[in-house]
Specification:
The protein has eleven helices and 13 strands. The radius of gyration is 21 Å and the shape is globular. The protein is α/β, with parallel strands linked by helices. Helix 2 (49-61) packs across helix 3 (70-98), helix 3 (70-98) runs parallel beside helix 4 (115-125) and helix 4 (115-125) packs parallel to helix 5. The protein has helices at residues 28-37, 49-61, 70-98, 115-125, 145-160, 178-186, 223-233, 250-259, 268-273, 276-291, 322-325, and strands at residues 6-8, 11-13, 17-19, 41-43, 47-48, 103-109, 129-134, 167-171, 192-195, 201-205, 210-214, 240-243, 263-266. The longest helix is centred in the first third of the chain and has 29 residues, at 70-98. 41% of the residues lie in helices and 16% in strands. The protein has one domain: Aldolase class I (TIM Barrel), CATH 3.20.20.70. An eight-stranded parallel beta barrel has the order 3-4-6-7-8-9-12-13, surrounded by eight helices. It has a two-stranded antiparallel ribbon with strand order 1-2.
């Protein structure tokens, strides 16, 4: 009998399909439907550091008391922060009461200052794990890269000092030494690293001269970047790797598992086609395994990783060969 179960971050998953952090994972109704459709785990919509600061500013914009009382200002600031966090922890508690799949909380960090206490609240609410969605845009031309990279380690250290639930990091590929950075982050005893995050991309409206979002949803073509790095690193890091961005069907998930991923996250395809896509992907994964005579995920996971591939150098190729470019 085909066994789709696997582990990720030390958590037991009935299959390697994880629903990634998004607006789709921000309601109890959707989380229950996600479980019903057969997902292995769910990552809740991120609690944003900027979101909390925005809520604080919004409260201040309707109240002038802070101008005359420092104590009142502190009270309002703490109230706004607590209100946002309480909504989030309540969702965790309700999801744990009514579903059985792992519930992974997510926080979007840009500094190491806010998160230790928040992580404690998230753990106490019952979350099975915590995904730290970290990205500091390396746009400051006066900042040394080491200074920027240290922020990631500082965030991990402060959060790890407060919680015992497994922690994963969701990263971008914006590092000059990406492989080394991921390797060193895996030494921090995080349980998982998600490759890669997908961020807001600015575009320009040439008629209104306004900035607008560009490329909101991922496409299947975007799988190649994470596929390359999953394959190169899956045998070389000291934590699980999870693939993200570009998985739109069972074939995409299978490719990432062959490269060495422990699991794969999907999001955009659910916005486009609905939550029914979850059951389809899981069913097609099972059918493919039966066709290939694989009884469990570990029978083929990593079969096409850098260390096991018959042509490992292809993962390091960055230029097209001449005949690929149509040049004689």
């Amino acid at each position: 009998m085909t066994d789709l179960s696997t582990t990720y971050m030390g958590l037991n998953l009935r299959n390697p399909l994880i629903i990634g952090s998004s607006g789709l994972t921000n309601s109890l109704t959707n989380i229950q439907e996600i479980e019903k459709q057969g997902a292995g785990a769910v990552v809740l919509k991120s609690l944003f550091e900027e979101q909390i600061k925005f809520e604080i500013r919004k409260v201040f914009s309707h109240d002038n008391v802070q101008s005359s009382s420092t104590e009142a200002e502190d009270y309002i600031r703490n109230y706004a922060r607590a209100h946002t966090l309480n909504e989030y922890t309540n969702l965790i508690q309700e999801a744990k009461k009514t579903t059985s799949i792992p519930i992974i909380a997510s926080v979007n960090c840009v500094s190491a200052s806010e998160w230790p206490s928040f992580a404690t609240n998230i753990q106490e609410a019952g979350a099975d794990g915590l995904e730290l969605n970290i990205f500091v845009l390396p746009s400051d031309i006066n900042s040394d890269s080491k200074k920027i990279e240290q922020i990631y380690f500082d965030i991990v250290e402060t959060v790890k000092s407060k919680v015992s639930i497994p922690i994963s990091l969701k990263l971008s590929h914006h590092f000059s030494g990406l492989g080394e950075m991921i390797k060193k982050l895996s030494w921090t005893e995080v349980k998982g690293i998600v490759l890669f995050n997908r961020f807001f991309n600015p575009d320009i409206d040439t008629e209104s001269f306004m900035l607008k979002p560009g490329n909101i949803y991922s496409t299947p073509d975007e799988i190649t970047n994470s596929l390359r790095w999953i394959a190169i690193l899956s045998d070389r890091v000291q934590c699980d790797l999870c693939a993200s961005t570009g998985i739109h069907d069972s074939t995409g998930l299978i490719k990432q598992l062959l490269a060495g991923a422990k699991a794969g996250q999907i999001c955009s395809v659910l916005y486009k086609n609905g939550l029914d896509e979850i059951e389809k992907i899981v069913s097609e994964l099972q059918s493919w395994m039966e066709q290939k005579n694989f009884s469990k995920i570990d029978d083929f996971r990593g079969k096409m990783s850098y260390k096991k591939s018959e042509n490992p150098s292809a993962y390091y190729r960055v230029q097209f060969m001449k005949h690929f470019a149509g040049i004689e």
